[in-house]
Amino acid sequence: MGLQIDIQAIVANWRALASMAPTARAAAVVKADAYGLGAGRVAAALYEAGARDFFVALAREGQVLRGHLPEDARINVLSGHMEGQDLSGLVPVLNSTEQFFRDRAMRPGQPFALQLDSGMNRLGMEAAEWASIRDEALAAGPAFIMSHLACADEPEHPANASQLAAFRAMTEGCDVPLSLAATGGILLGKDYHFDLVRPGIGMYGGLPFAQARPVVRLSLPVIQTRVVEPGEFVGYGSTWTATERCRIATVAAGYADGIFRALSSSGASLYADGRPCPIVGRVSMDLVTADVSALDGVPAELDLICDEQPIDRVADYAGTIGYEILTSLGQRYERTYL
Ligand SMILES: *Cc1c(COP(=O)(O)O)cnc(C)c1O
């Protein structure tokens, strides 16, 4: 019942991704509470498996995580050094000259890393900015220099090669560990691996790592089942009307729990031991209705996320990506860690 999270599958996926980039150290990206799955538990298990480098988005996430990890774990903060932040025990990834000067003034001698923009135009220093502080920044001894790929989930996309070339050009002659690849970049091959890889979604069972072991199962308790006659409708807005006599089950979760309203009559199903029961009518805040006529009995629970309908299938039905399905899973589920 509830949200089952297979920690050993996360560890196995991390190991599999690490082994695809044998020349690099494998970090683990645990931002947004480990993509909604619980950063403390996930990071502790990955530490146990040998991970020593972790990435979060915000200093506040890093401070929470610090309490779950031994001293020798390095917790890197992707947003860098914003004003007024407590970065003690953390490694900010500095994204601009402004962040660099702020950080060096306030945290002299403390570890830091640098991010360069190789074409995504989201975070990191551009070539001219980087050139202006390069000597001073290198003299200060960054832990690593990184950049991020915008299109790594599309292997044929020309941006991959151009970002790789830009990153190489900007880091030429830097005797510092380099990092470019997230999950998608690991799959692009060894040119993209450098010294440190940063897998996230692949560890959590999502595309583009198609060989990932599934991590999440979401089982929802059935509250009530009823017979609906032809011509009767189901749910808000009466968007679905029965054309024949059917049985409708109502389960206890809805869009407040990350079951997107866009899944209403989208083709997505709830599963009973591997058998699909189409979601019918609107997804409401706390409830979802599904047609269980094809089943012999009434199950105690129905699965939204399972081997037959993994996160990326659910995402397709909802018009989004697996990342958003995971990070939207709410706090109301009973969570079980396997
Ligand atoms: C989120 C993120 C990652 C992890 O990306 P995945 O696609 O989930 O593997 C790595 N690096 C940076 C900079 C990120 O923002």
Automatic annotation (TrEMBL):
Catalysis performed (reactions): L-alanine = D-alanine
List of residues binding substrate: 122, 285
Residues in Alanine racemase C-terminal domain copies: 215-338
PTM annotation (N6-(pyridoxal phosphate)lysine): residues: 31
Keyword set, alphabetical order: Isomerase, Pyridoxal phosphate
A GO molecular-function annotation: pyridoxal phosphate binding
EC numbers, comma separated: 5.1.1.1
Cofactor(s), names only, from the UniProt record: pyridoxal 5'-phosphate
GO annotation, cellular component aspect: cytosol
The protein's annotated pathway: Amino-acid biosynthesis; D-alanine biosynthesis; D-alanine from L-alanine: step 1/1
Name of a matching Pfam family: Ala_racemase_C
Gene3D superfamilies in alphabetical order: Alanine racemase, Lyase, Ornithine Decarboxylase, Chain A, domain 1
InterPro entries assigned: Ala_racemase, Ala_racemase/Decarboxylase_C, Ala_racemase_C, Ala_racemase_N, Ala_racemase_pyridoxalP-BS, PLP-binding_barrel
Keyword match Lipoprotein: no
Active site (catalytic residues): 31, 236
GO terms classed as biological process: D-alanine biosynthetic process
Domain of life: Bacteria
Cited NCBIfam families: alr
Role summary: Catalyzes the interconversion of L-alanine and D-alanine. May also act on other amino acids.
Family that this chain belongs to: Belongs to the alanine racemase family.
The name this protein goes by in its record: Alanine racemase
Organism listed in the record: Paracoccus seriniphilus
